Amino acid sequence: MLAVLVPVVPFILIIGVIWWYQNFSRVGRHINKLDGPGYPIVGVFLDYLSGDLEKVFQNDRDRCAKYSPIFKLWIFHKATVILQKPDDIEIILSSTKHIKKSQIYDNLHMWLGTGLLTSDGDKWKSRRKILTPAFHFAILKGFVDVFNEATESLVKDLTERAHEDYIDVVPPITQFTVQSMAETSMGTSLDLTQQINRNYKKAILDFTEIALYRLTKPWLYDENLFKLIPSGKQATKIVNTLHEFTRNIIHERKKSFKSSYTTQKRLAMLDLLLKAQETDGAIDDEGIREEVDTFMFEGHDTTAVAICHILMLLANHKNVQDEVRQEIFDIIGDNSQPPSYSDLQELAYTERCIKECLRLYPSVTLIGRDINEDVQTSTGYIIPKGTMAHIFIYDLHRNPDLYPDPLKFDPDRFLPENIQKRHPFAYIPFSAGSRNCIGQRFAMLELKALLCGILRKFNLEAVDRPEDIVFQADLVLRSKNPIRVKFITRN
Ligand code: HEM
């Protein structure tokens, strides 16, 4: 009898404490004024057990459709409030008090430590201050050459494969963005004929896969626990490869830094960090490593999925494709002269297409914050301190009240007169407020440079239609299947 009671009593006690917390604690009393799915005690925990990523993605869509504009989710004692109303999103994102990222970001710590994306407080403030000049227009101007060279090599590869019935654009585009990021963030060209570079690129993809596995298993968020299981041990090995590579690059760069700093045309982000270290010791070696890793992570996958979706959309909307191409010819000409920084600034219609693509397919679908002190929403609910607030950008951008006929690809939604009619927090592909995307102008230039190279050389024909694309839960908006486009060489 005693043998049965020993494990059962603590179990019942834990259940009792969770039940009390969900119903009678201060957090519970406020949170339970909101509607939301789930069962007592476990909340929505069971939805994650299958590990079916497509289902996890779809569950989020269904919940948003049913409970928006504000609802609650419990997973045992952890409460999350989902905010989908632009007024409420503004309250959270424009506040300087709620800048700490929520728990879902923790599974990136193994690789990124607490770099710009994952840090908070004074550390985040000081890093943001050091890194902001890396996105000054004079530096972005220098990066246009990198984008043009990477585009040229991508176009060459695609030309060799243009006889194929279709190309799955995800692998070549991901290679393009990894290479562009390596050259701009580390000042190193990632020559993929070298084994060490291939290992690094593979390690990035392997880590992403494991982070994703962990993302849908909230019980593995604790790093110490995770490191004990086989996939955690594998992640440790992969992270060692990633860190060793970055540390070597930093070490090499340091050697040449002094002489290259004043004369170099393409000032890499790494140089800026080295300068901050040298002039006032504002960042140490591990700090530099964290930031280089953060930019490699945040800067390649986001742009890769955005490019894949825009190619798919243009292939499906020939009239828009023709108009973008015409604009490119009008501004840059139809020869092989690469675009300059100012040419890219002039591509107004192309920019509207990119914006509309990021509305329908925002690379980052979900952002989350820890609520550091009670917040009152626009409709009077209190989100209590100690909870998490999540915003599903994907669903916000497809809300028919904000975007009539939301599934229609219509770049004119971004004509200045139409933007003016919308709430400024109804469109947030790059988030908003102080923790917005530091790389948004970088991304826009990279996307435009690539479209110039591709549309001058190819006509794009649809293979997959928007309705064929099946998404799954991921760190970025990734489809389950390939994204296939036919490339037809233009004469
Ligand atoms: C289409 C491309 C991109 C999209 C849609 C995008 C989107 C976002 C979003 C939504 C956030 C906020 C994340 C959060 O609150 O959790 C963010 C943050 C960030 N992004 Fe981007 N991003 C893109 C490209 C880039 C690029 C190219 C870089 C680097 C060159 C970059 C670097 C960062 C960094 C470092 C942060 C953290 C900023 C901070 O917290 O201070 N992103 N991005």
UniProtKB/TrEMBL annotation:
<dbReference type="InterPro" id="IPR036396">
    <property type="entry name" value="Cyt_P450_sf"/>
</dbReference>
<keyword id="KW-0472">Membrane</keyword>
<dbReference type="InterPro" id="IPR017972">
    <property type="entry name" value="Cyt_P450_CS"/>
</dbReference>
<keyword id="KW-0349">Heme</keyword>
<dbReference type="InterPro" id="IPR050196">
    <property type="entry name" value="Cytochrome_P450_Monoox"/>
</dbReference>
<keyword id="KW-0408">Iron</keyword>
<dbReference type="InterPro" id="IPR002401">
    <property type="entry name" value="Cyt_P450_E_grp-I"/>
</dbReference>
<dbReference type="GO" id="GO:0005789">
    <property type="term" value="C:endoplasmic reticulum membrane"/>
</dbReference>
<keyword id="KW-0812">Transmembrane</keyword>
<dbReference type="GO" id="GO:0005506">
    <property type="term" value="F:iron ion binding"/>
</dbReference>
<dbReference type="InterPro" id="IPR001128">
    <property type="entry name" value="Cyt_P450"/>
</dbReference>
<dbReference type="GO" id="GO:0004497">
    <property type="term" value="F:monooxygenase activity"/>
</dbReference>
<comment type="similarity">
    <text>Belongs to the cytochrome P450 family.</text>
</comment>
<feature type="binding site" description="axial binding residue">
    <location>
        <position position="437"/>
    </location>
    <ligand>
        <name>heme</name>
    </ligand>
</feature>
<dbReference type="GO" id="GO:0016705">
    <property type="term" value="F:oxidoreductase activity, acting on paired donors, with incorporation or reduction of molecular oxygen"/>
</dbReference>
<dbReference type="GO" id="GO:0020037">
    <property type="term" value="F:heme binding"/>
</dbReference>
<keyword id="KW-0503">Monooxygenase</keyword>
<keyword id="KW-0479">Metal-binding</keyword>
<keyword id="KW-0256">Endoplasmic reticulum</keyword>
<comment type="function">
    <text>May be involved in the metabolism of insect hormones and in the breakdown of synthetic insecticides.</text>
</comment>
<protein>
    <recommendedName>
        <fullName>Cytochrome P450 4C1</fullName>
    </recommendedName>
</protein>
<feature type="transmembrane region" description="Helical">
    <location>
        <begin position="6"/>
        <end position="24"/>
    </location>
</feature>
<dbReference type="Pfam" id="PF00067">
    <property type="entry name" value="p450"/>
</dbReference>
<keyword id="KW-0492">Microsome</keyword>
<keyword id="KW-1133">Transmembrane helix</keyword>
<keyword id="KW-0560">Oxidoreductase</keyword>
